[in-house]
Amino acid sequence: MSITAPQGFRAAGVTAGLKASGKPDVALVVNDGPSKAAAAVFTSNRVAAAPVHWSREVVKDGRVDAVILNSGGANACTGPQGFQNTHTTAEKTAEALGVSATDVVVCSTGLIGEQLPMEKILAGIGSATAALAADGGPAAATAIMTTDSVSKQSVFTGTAAEGTQFTIGGMAKGAGMLAPGLATMLVVLTTDADVPPDVLDAELRNATRLTFDRADSDGCMSTNDTVVLLASGASGAAPSAADFGAGLTQVCAELARKLIGDAEGASHDIAIRTFNAASERDAEIVSRAVARSNLFKTAIFGKDPNWGRVLSAVGTTDAAFEPDQLNVSTNGVQICRNGSIGDDRNLVDLEPREVLVEIDLQAGAAEATILTNDLTHDYVHENSAYSS
User: Fold this and answer.
1) Are strands 66-70 and 340-341 parallel, antiparallel or unpaired?
2) Catalytic sites, residue numbers
3) Residue range 46-100, pLDDT digits in tens
4) CA angle, 317 as apex, 314 and 320 as ends, to 5°?
5) Residue 280 φ then ψ, to 5°
6) How big is the CA angle at 270 (ends 72 and 321), to the nearest 5 degrees?
7) Rounded to whole angstroms, how far apart are CA atoms 268 and 351?
8) Is omega for the bond preceding 138 within 30 degrees of 0, making it cis?
9) Within the chain, which residues score under 70 in pLDDT?
10) pLDDT at residue 20 in the model
11) CA dihedral for 272, 248, 4, 227, sign (positive or negative)
């Protein structure tokens, strides 16, 4: 199980007819308490979808009773009618559950620029409410998929200082448009730990900074990115902020890896680690510059360990380094040494799906890793055919 592994949660995933494929497309997650604490982070894209505008207001008081999600339509760039549709979705969900609409987070994903078929959405809410179950997490994870080939779930169990156990569960969707600012696509996280909203917010922001913010598939930021964290307190465990944060980061890291592992058309999962940097910021911007280089990504697709493309990307940043002190290794082979020719690049094996590129700046002690993937023919095909 995923989001229903923690105590105090029910979930469902149903088919409402939003997808031409007939696959599940409406998910509902309910926090039965006793606590209804929550926090969330959202896309920093200025062209944000209606559900993002609504949900930002919902979480301001640190309480969320339920999250209603749909795939098959983003409800982005849909004007006042789109926002009204989000409001109506929250009201219908609240009515079905006996809660307040202002405590219902709404999330949508799919094609931008089309109104949602509200008669199907509203019927789907009724079906999802009827299907709510304590083991409904996997069904919900399936219902939020768009171009995903597999659902993405994760669970962590930890122990608080007093010896009581707590669980954190998570589900995510996303296979493209992964270049987040504060979040990545749609993610719901649940915990039965007793954690106040301010701690949830701080630990969620730190976890997303280290995980989802560093999953950069294709350099394209979504209009709908949402990560919401719900705490029921049902276990009675009250872990320290540090212990809770460590578990939360572990769940987010696993989900981030699964997002990259399912990236549209990808044939390689790439970790770009920059180390010996003057600051964590320097390490992150160097790794991200390489991750966003189409020349680098196509080279990996072609199984060509072209370290020149790595150095070219590094050189576009303002990170502290000396060009004649850069080292680059790919899958354990140092193919660039001190900014020049290193070991024979033919020694690099790029047949495995997993690729590790390590960049040594020789400028300090900080490091950061960005997760990305190669750029393939299949990615171009899938995204050129998506709207049809």
Assistant:
1) unpaired
2) 184
3) 889 999 999 999 999 999 999 999 999 999 999 999 999 999 999 999 999 999 9
4) 90
5) -65, -35
6) 125
7) 9
8) no
9) 175-184, 385-388
10) 87
11) negative
* Residue 257 neighbours by CB under 8 Å, 6+ apart: 215, 269, 371
Helix-then-strand count for the chain, H and E: 10, 15
Residues 377 and 205: their CA atoms lie apart, in Å, by 35
DSSP code at position 63: B
Distance CA 222, CA 177 (A): 6
Other C-beta atoms lying within 10 Å of the C-beta of residue 56: 15
- Find tokens 């390689």 and name the residue: 268
Cα dihedral value 128, 174, 210, 370, nearest 10: 170
The string of DSSP letters for 201-224 reads: HHHHHHHHHHTGGGB-SSS---SS
What global pTM score does this model have?
0.90
DSSP label at 229?
E
What is the full DSSP assignment across 312-377? HHHTTS-----GGG-EEEETTEEEEETTEE-S-GGG----SSEEEEEEE--S-SEEEEEEEE---H
Instruction: Yes or no: say if 75 and 86 are a contact pair by the CB < 8 Å rule.
Output: yes
291-319 residues labelled b (16+ CB within 10 A) or e (exposed): bbbeebbbbbbeeebbbebbbebbeebeb
Backbone angles phi, psi at 114, to 5 degrees: -135, 140
What pLDDT was estimated at residue 175?
A: 65
Strand partners, 28: 12, 68
pLDDT at 148 (0 to 100): 85
Output the CA–CA distances (angstroms, integers) from residue 184 to 45, 203, 233, 327, in the order listed.
11, 16, 26, 31
**What's at 343, amino acid-wise?**
D
* Residue 174 structure tokens: 């996303």
**Residue-level pLDDT at 188:** 97
Would you state the pLDDT for residue 218? Answer: 73
Within 8 A by CB and 6+ apart from 231, the residues are 31, 35, 37, 38, 190, 191, 192, 193, 194, 195, 200
| Sequence-distant (≥ 6) Cβ neighbours of residue 360 within 8 angstroms | 275, 276, 326, 327, 328, 329
